[in-house]
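Quick question, first post here. What does this chain look like in 3D?
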Amino acid sequence: MDETKKIVIISDGTGKTARRLMDAVLAQYAHQDIEYSLVKTYSEVRAKKQINRILQEIDDDFLVVFSIISKTLNDYFCEKLSKRNILHLNVLKPMISTLSKFLGVHPDYQPGILQKIDDRYYKKIDAIGFTVEHDDGLGQFIGEADIVLVGLSRTCKTPISMYLACNYGMKVANIPIVSNPALTDNLLNKLQPLNRKNIFGLLMQPEILARIREERSHYLAPETKQTTVELYHDIREVRSELRFCRDLFSAQGWHTIDVTRRAIEEISLEILTKLGHAPNDI
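> Answer (accepted):
Ran it through. Tokens below.
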């Protein structure tokens, strides 16, 4: 058959739902000697005026594949298409009809819900990529961060960062604190573009932090000088570093959070609350 079959997609959202379903079905015709063309996708169609304009652009040579959740608009569109003998399919109707019978309730008939879900998904993917790239002081786009965590080594910066990214789609950068004036100046310059309310200083009880570092030192010892390793978990050095952090956090007006023996979920919730976010809305 020489004639190319023409298809249009019409949606009250982006049209992705209808396109995915259509592609899945068309794949079953891949070895048939036919040609078809997706002529156009009409998105955000939520009014009769839009429907009328589309009807002026198509005729009975077209197949109309659409996903319109509004019952009123769907009935109006189907009536117009039927009168003009235009073949059409609402890809949502069979599923909604069956589920309504099964669940015993009617749907909300709200357009664009799937796109909202997709948007949240891609937001999380972007946030995870950003957070990985900006772990442990790395990354070049810290100004785009939703949250910046600063703190001493072994104060749970990375786990908290990844939890916030994976579960709430927050772009998080984390930067280690070293009690060195030159490095501190560099840190402050790096954080200059950010609002101070988005910066969180992490603290931990010195005895707990020293113990965690000592356990970590067993892995570092083969590659690091013994005196350096001992200093890393020496309780006096840990206390000194924590005093430095408290003074720095206070001087800069950053939020401070004690992470000692606290679950990552609890710490993350405190961070979101201090930012004024309701976790269920993110």
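The domain at 118-281 is CATH 3.40.50 (Rossmann fold).
The mean pLDDT is 90.
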